[in-house]
Amino acid sequence: MGIFSGGEVSRDEFERLARRVEELERRLASMTSGAAATTTEGHDVPSVWEDPAMARVRDLKQRGKLVEAIKVYRQVTGAGLRQAKLAVERM
Asked: How far is residue 33's CA from residue 4's CA, in Å, rounded to a whole number?
């Protein structure tokens, strides 16, 4: 495998890796929720930031209602308390 061994990568290996990256991107997109957004490649992928529920979370946070924002985030995403708290604080 040329990428990690320091050697050159064959065209076949490059194409295999490109297909793998595309597959991983599709899987990641399917794990997120929200409205569709367009990437630079022209693929429609969900955007969690365009989800109305997440807009509510951001609004609650901006109004200083952090606990309520965390509760809504947990309901929407199924995240645990710690993960939700960190995510909302980073918004």
From this structure: 34
Give the residue among 32, 87, 83 at the shortest CA–CA distance from 57.
87
Whether this model's pTM surpasses 0.90: no
Q: Alpha carbon 67 to chain centroid distance?
A: 23
Count of beta carbons in the 10 Å neighbourhood of residue 30: 10
For the segment 70-84, what is each residue's pLDDT rounded down to a tens digit? 999 899 888 899 999
Distance CA 78, CA 39 (A): 26
Give the integer Cα–Cα distance in Å for 60 and 30: 27
